[in-house]
C-alpha cells in the first residue's frame, strides 16, 4: 500500500545517500510503523478529550 508519493520518498533517500533499491524495499515497512503509531496517538487523544 502506497499512501504517499513514493517518488518524493526516493528522491529524499537519494539526496541522503541511501541506495534507491534499499529505500524502495524499506519504505513500505516504515510507513506501516508510522501508521500504527499515528493511530495509537489518535486513539489516546480521543480517550483523553472531554465532550463539550
What does this structure look like?
There is one protein chain. It contains two helices and no strands. The protein has 52 residues and is mostly helical. It is elongated. It starts with 5 loop residues before the first helix and ends with a helix.
Relevant terms:
single chain, 52 residues, mainly alpha, 2 helices, elongated
Secondary structure layout:
Elements: H1 6-15, H2 20-48
Order of SSEs, N→C? HH
Rg result: 16 Å
Say how many strands there are. Answer: 0
- Termini separation (Å)? 37 Å
Average pLDDT across residues?
83
Q: Name the structural class.
A: mainly alpha
How many distinct helices?
2
Major sheet: none
Uncertain residue ranges: none
Q: What global shape is seen?
A: elongated
- Roughly what percent helix? over 70%
Strand percent estimate: under 5%
Summarize the structure.
This protein has 52 residues and is mostly helical. Helix content is 75%, strand content 0%. The chain has helices spanning 6-15, 20-48.
Amino acid at each position: 500500500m502506497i499512501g504517499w508519493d513514493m517518488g518524493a520518498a526516493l528522491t529524499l533517500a537519494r539526496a541522503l545517500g541511501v541506495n534507491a533499491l534499499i529505500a524502495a524495499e524499506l519504505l513500505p515497512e516504515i510507513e506501516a510503523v508510522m501508521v500504527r503509531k499515528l493511530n495509537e496517538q489518535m486513539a489516546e487523544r480521543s480517550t483523553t478529550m472531554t465532550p463539550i
